[in-house]
Amino acid sequence: MYIVDSQVHIWAANTPERPWPTGRHAPHRHVPFTKDDLLREMQAAGVHRAIVVPPGWEGERNDVVLEAARLHPDRFAVMGRFDAEAPGALSLVATWRQQCGVLGMRITFAGPSKYARPLTEGRLEGLWREAEKAGVPIMMSVPPAHLHLADRIAERHPARNGSWDAVCASGWDGSCRSRFADQKFFETTSSRGAGNE
Question: What is the pTM assigned to this prediction?
């Protein structure tokens, strides 16, 4: 059987030359987990390929995962972090998938309430529109309390592809259901979640 892990984090150390942003959660491991570490674990587990996603504690950067995909295109693909509210961000959407190994975008709305504000305040309509037009999938981490907002995105942009992950990681009780499943708008990539992201 050919096995692809649909969400794995790799990261580099927090250093003065490459600092992590403040106010993010800490990694579950205190030492970096590199592409070489991941390749060893994939080999041991019989995993053929992996989609690497930068972890939240590194901020909105993709350098480590892009380098992994460039060096090992037969093993890694990328869902790259995207800061939709950065100056000029929307101009990057049309060519986002032209980066080596990039399949789509990763946006996190889970965690402290400030992360959810772009979603709860409706500030990302331009992103949904541009991603739909360019055919760029978006992997979202949405807390259960905001699933109704994700439903509205699905209703307004039915042609857009994407995935939800860790969407019910905190408190899955069977009631966490979204219209995504009915519209086949999103595909669940990780029912167990990815830790604290």
Answer: 0.81
